[in-house]
Amino acid sequence: MIGIQSGQLTFTQVEAWCAHLLDPSSIYGLMNRLGALWFPDEVYASMYAAGGRPSVPPGLLARALMLQRWTNEGDRELVDRIRFDLRFKYALNVPIEYEGFDPSLLSVFRSRLMKHEKERLAFEQSLSMARACGLLDPDEDQVGDSAPIHGAAAVQDTYTLLRTSIEKILRALKPFEIRGFLPPFPADKYLKSRGKANIAWNDDAQKYAHLAELVEDAKALLNIGDEVSSDEQDRPVDTRLDDGDLLRACSVLRRIVKQDIVDTENGPRIRKGKDATSDRVISTNDPEMRHGHKTSKNLFAGYKGSITATTREIVTSIDVIAANEPDARPVPGQVDYFQRLGLYPKRLYLDCAYGSAETRLALKERDVEVVAKVPDASHLAKHFPKASFRIQMDGTTAAQVTCPTGKTTTAFRDAKDSKERPVQVAQFKAEDCKDCPLRSQCTPLKKKGREVELHHREDVLQAARQRAAEPGFREEIKTRCIVERINAQLQRHGLKAARYLGKQKTKLQALFAGAVHNFWKAGTHARGRAVIPVPTA
Q1: Cα gap 40→125, rounded to integer Å
Q2: Fewer Cβ neighbours under 10 Å: the N or C end of the chain?
Q3: What pairs with residue 394 in β-bridges?
Q4: Which residues are 347's β-sheet partners?
């Protein structure tokens, strides 16, 4: 049964004794005045049964999670604050003697939000609140960017990945031992307390022997997992055991063996260098974590947080993706999301990581213009890149290409790019390149002229380059810098590092960070008004 927080002022509340000590313009003052009004308990009613003992008011828990993101603290620290800190009691409108609740209730509440698909509720309430305060215009231009979110789990090496995956399968296999499915080795061989094997890790022979043993045990367990799954499918539905945990554990182990192990004539070996995949599972505690690069040199492990916001710094959408995914991948979905909420910006200001033809076309279908520079990889090229050539288009096809020295060509051949899409390749004559003073900087070919492969949608890129060359574009693109300040604020509210395992929980953390950011902006705007704006559902 849902608990409802009473709005009745009592003699033991902070307002009655020392409200004058607290700044009404602080987050605590704003939460005290506006929190219960803008984040009421009733909006969470569908998450609770009709009867039973009243719960801790869900609106109070939601506001507590927002304060948690504001101060970037853990669950136990948050509950201690609510129990002993007058600022938190004042913010949540609870009496001085309020003892708080068990920290585990916060975890239960987050799980309840995800189970009932209410993860976005507080965030969407903050958007309604911003709209009621006049801070959210439907056609206001928006900005976007992404930032690293360091994962909560430790990165594991291949030996640890294999060992901990085997441990998880052994635990998941326990309920099926009564049906005769036993591990093919002593069960205490992979006790969690044993940790890494006690071998000389600087001895290659011992390492390879241990690796071979791990791989052999892993493959044997995978075979048993397949047998269990097949056996359960053959049984009547009412007699089946839940094999979900086992199937998930087997899936992770199967992927680890495939990604990290290569069979050689000398036995299994670890994939290294170019043979290693870029989409590696790096932790069995959080299999969704990945290695990623925000720059060419800065490696991190975890996720990326992708945000969009208005030019008045109201966050309109937040998504979380794996660290190795392209920055632009979630943007079309984010645009779909805030358009469903009634926001239809004409322009979205982004950096060059979002300037690909694919992103521009995807957002054009949604009537949104991508204002961003075209990605330029010239600093990576050994010879003149495509950007050094002037390309004239005739509709969607290229008509003429001019090289840096002024030579032109209208000769093209058809080809396929790395994604098997049809492209044009401009061909310069050998005699045009033979005596060129810039030949060494342009092409390594000695008997042929330079060839320039064009993009599958070169017309989109050329139009974007012309847009970037317009007078005033350099000033216009500076609008994007707003998102850097928003990102910095969200990082201070805990978006820099995940506190929970898994992408879904990390996204929930990001949504509450966005909700408290919007609350602060709207609350500051509404402070001092005689009539407080009330958001519509």
Answers
A1: 10
A2: C
A3: 397
A4: 369
Structure-block tokens of residue 160: 């640890």
- How far is Cα 516 from Cα 495, in angstroms, rounded to an integer? 12
How far is it, in rounded angstroms, from Cα 295 to Cα 304? 13
Residue pair 455/419 in contact by the 8 Å Cβ criterion? no
**Nearest-angstrom CA–CA distance, 148 and 496:** 7
Which CATH number applies to 138-155+292-383+458-515? 3.30.420.10
The DSSP letter of residue 57 is: P
Angstrom distance (rounded) from CA 294 to CA 324: 9
Which pLDDT does position 381 carry in this prediction?
66
The residues, ordered by sequence, that sit 6+ positions from 297 with a Cβ below 8 Å of its Cβ are none
Q: Specify the 3-state DSSP secondary structure of 421.
A: coil
Task: Spell out the residues 6+ positions from residue 295 whose beta carbon is closer than 8 angstroms to its own.
Answer: none
Q: What is the pTM of this model?
A: 0.91
* Backbone torsions φ then ψ of 157, nearest 5 degrees: -80, 175
Which ranges in 94-243 belong to alpha helices (H)? 104-115, 121-132, 158-173, 204-234
How far out from the chain centre does Cα 17 lie?
A: 44
354: CB partners within 8 A, 6+ apart: 144, 327, 328, 331, 370, 372
Say how many Å lie between the first and final Cα of the chain, rounded.
22
Question: Which residues neighbour 162 within 8 Å (Cβ) at sequence distance 6 or greater?
Answer: 214, 215, 218, 253, 256, 257, 260
Q: What is the mean pLDDT of each run of 10 residues along the chain (537 residues)?
A: 82 81 89 89 89 90 95 94 94 92 95 94 93 91 95 93 93 87 82 80 92 93 90 82 89 93 91 78 94 83 95 95 93 95 94 93 95 76 85 89 91 90 91 85 81 91 91 92 94 93 95 95 80 61
Phi and psi at residue 394, to the nearest 5° = -125, 90
Q: How far apart are CA 474 and CA 464, in angstroms?
A: 13
Cite the DSSP H helix spans in 178-240: 204-234
Report the amino acid identity of residue 301.
A
Dist. CA 155–CA 168, nearest whole Å: 17
Q: What is the per-residue pLDDT for 382?
A: 79
* Domains in the chain: boundaries: 14-118, 138-155+292-383+458-515, 158-275, 397-456
CA pair distance 131, 535, nearest whole angstrom: 7
CA 217 – CA 253 distance, rounded (Å): 11
* CA–CA dist 128, 122 (Å, integer): 10
DSSP reduced 3-state for 275: helix
Dist. CA 221–CA 187, nearest whole Å? 12
Distance separating alpha carbons of residues 77 and 96, to the nearest angstrom: 18
Residue 31 is encoded by which pair of tokens? Answer: 């939460």
Helix (H) or strand (E) holding 289: none
What amino acid occupies position 403? C
Q: Please provide residue 134's backbone torsions phi and psi, each rounded to the nearest 5 degrees.
A: 80, 20
